[in-house]
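Quick one: C-alpha cells for this chain, please?
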Amino acid sequence: MSPETAREERPIAKTINATQAEIETHRSLTEMLQLEDLVVVGQEYDEAEEIILVICEPRWPARVCPECGQVSDQVHDYPRQRAVQDAPIRGYRSQVVFDMRRFWCEYCEGVFTEAIRDVVPNCTYTYRLMQEVTNPRRRQDVATLAEVYGLGYKLVEGMLLKAAEEKLVQRAKEPVKVTHLGVDEIANRKGQGDYRLVLTDLKGRQLVDILPDRRKQSLIEWLQAPPAGLDLTKLSWVATDLWKHYRAAVQSVYPQVKVVADRFHVTQALHRVINQVRRSLQAEAQSDEEQAQLKGLRYLLLKNEAKLTPKNQTRLERLKQERPPLYQLWVLRQKLHDWYEKEHDIDEARPLLEAWRQEAKALGWEPLKTFCQTLKDWEDEVVNFFPSTHYQRLC
C-alpha cells in the first residue's frame, strides 16, 4: 500500500472545525494570550470543573520536518485532542484545547508530530502559566502556589525547576542567526493557484515566517526587513524551488549569497515527468498485453534501488525486456539520485550533470526534454548543492 493510499484510508479524528469568522471574532483573545502557534476559535465554560476552555486551532497550515528540514502541508492525522493548563482568565482556571496534528513528510517519507511553541515541551501547561506561577515577585511557597492556581504540588514544583532552566538558556539567547534559509510555497487553497510563501531556518529546523503570497516583491521586502528576532547578516545560502522570481528576489537583496536549487524540488519535477510519460504510454496502449506491461508502474518507477523488494526487482527485469525505454527512465532517475548522494565539487558535478542531460534527451520524450532544459537554465543553482556541505547534511 502506498503512503498516499494509507493516508486516504486512515480516519482523521479532527474534532475542532472553525470558520474564518470565528477566528476573527476571537482575534483579540488570541493576541491577549500571545499565542504563537495557535489561534483561538471559541470559548466554553465547564461549570462542573469551574474552568474556562479556550478552544484553539493551529495557526500555521504547514510545518517543518525536524528530520530533513523540508516544509510539509500534508496532514497525516489528528491522533488526539490535547487540553493543557493555562493561566487564569477572569479569575477562573483555564485550559487551552486543540487537536494535535501529525504531518507526512514527502521528502524523507516519514511522519512527525507538530511541536506547539505555546506549550512547554513534554509538559501539560503553557509558557504563559509557567511564567505567571514562577514570577519571583510572588514570593510564595510551592504549596501556596498550588492552592492558588488549583494545581498539583508536583506540577508547580516541576514548573519552578523548568523555569530555572529556561532562565539559564534565556541568558545565552540572541536573535536567531539564519545562515541557511529555505524558501518554499504551499497552496492556500488547493487547485486555485493561491499560494503562501514559507520561510524556514534550515539549520535550526524551524519555521520563521509565512508570507500571505509568493510575489517577488513580498520576498524582497521581507529579506530587506526581516521580523524582529531574526538576523540575516550572516546569510550564506538560500535554498529555493525552481521558480525564477525567488532566485531574482534573493539575488537583488543579497547578490553575494549563493542560491541552491532545492534537491527535493528537482527530483519532484523529474517524478512529475516520469508520471507524464507513464500516463501517455498507458493512453497509447493498443492491446491488453501492453496494458498489463504498464499496469502498476507508478511507484516502481520512482523507487530507489536500495528500497527495491525482490518482487520489485523481478518486475524491473521484465520491464527491461519488454519496455527498454521505460526501464531506462527508471535508470535515469536512479542515476540522478546517485549523483546527489556522492560528494562532488562543482568541477566534477557539472560535466556529470550535463552527461545525464544528454542521456535523458536521447530518449526523445518531450516532457523529459523540457525538464532537461530546466536543468540547463538552473545549472549553477543545481550544482551549488555540492560545495554547500552543510546543506547536504541538512537535506
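Residues 265-394 form one domain.
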